[in-house]
Amino acid sequence: MSDAPIGVFDSGIGGTTVLKSVQELLPNENYVFFGDSANCPFGTKSPSELRQIVKAATERLLERKVKLIIVACNTATTQTIEYLRETFPEVPFVGTEPAVKLACDGGWTQILLLSTEGTAHAPRTEELIHENVRPGQTIVNLPCLGLAEAIETRDLTKIRENLKENFKNVQNPEEVEVVILGCTHYPLAKAEIQKFFPKAKLVDGGEGVARQVKRLLEERGLLNPAKKRGEVEYFFSKREE
Ligand code: DGL
Asked: Which domains does the chain have, with CATH numbers?
């Protein structure tokens, strides 16, 4: 049993979509959310830059005595989760990966995977596709340049322009059956993305992360026994304008 908070980090507001899913399953836990806006976007960083960034984010959360850390970012997870586990062997980490398995298990045939450049080109993403795709299924792996940053600005005009540009070469959008939101910022633009793929179901990895957090805390006897809703502390690094 432990009332220590669960740490969550991302390059900015995207990680709040994962936090929401985890809070739904574990409402009585306390959380510390770190949005590393100064380093947004993660999606264009080199693997070595990313390793430095996630190490520093982990250290900031550990200063706040967190009992587990959620990497609420597909880019950081696909490229650095192994490095984090090696560097901080005493810390339980839960990563966020594109929900490729969920989409493939659902039996759809036309699948579109949206993510940052970093995630789209990560060997782990290739591996996820390779491990899960079945005969007859097509997965289009589409990096969405600048989309996480546009969402970070919360400017709807910018978001719409960005989506139009990123989706301009998608063949037969009306035939896409499932869209994997492979960046934790994208659920914040779900309604706008849906307009381009009217028949598609939009899926993300949030619920899977929540189940994994619960499982790990149970296994280690670290669940919070509190009977009331927990608290969330948010802090952000400052973005230079
Ligand atoms: N929200 C993150 C992700 O899931 C990172 C977006 C970015 O900063 O490029 O990939």
From this structure: 6-96+206-236 (3.40.50.1860), 100-203 (3.40.50.1860)
